[in-house]
Write a structure and sequence with these properties.
With 93 residues, this protein is mostly helical. Helices cover 71% and strands 4% of the residues. The longest helix has 33 residues. The two termini are 28 Å apart.
Length: 93
């Protein structure tokens, strides 16, 4: 049963980061594009939306933060070896 549990955890994390982060980035792009406002064919103007622009920047920030933490997690042993700095309080040999 431990193997099935481990496989399911890996599958869940893979789906989260493999599909979740690109989905968040795509939502951020969509909200950013919608926040600009638009001129339709009949001449009506849609006003810009600062709330959608702020939401898009929040989504971009989340994606950037997850990527940065992932890179730091992968390199934590090397950073600790050369600098003596423990970026995370666990996971050191």
């Amino acid at each position: 049963m431990d193997i099935v549990e481990a496989i399911s955890k890996v599958l869940l994390v893979g789906l989260l980061f493999g599909a979740g982060l690109p989905a968040l980035f795509a939502l951020g792009l969509r909200y950013h594009a919608q926040s600009e406002g638009d001129v339709s064919d009949d001449g009506t103007i849609t006003a810009p939306s600062p709330a959608l622009r702020a939401l898009s920047y929040v989504l971009f920030g989340i994606v950037t933060l997850v990527i940065a933490v992932g890179i730091l997690w992968i390199t934590r042993q090397t950073i600790y070896y050369y600098t003596g700095v423990k970026l995370f309080p666990f996971g050191y040999k």
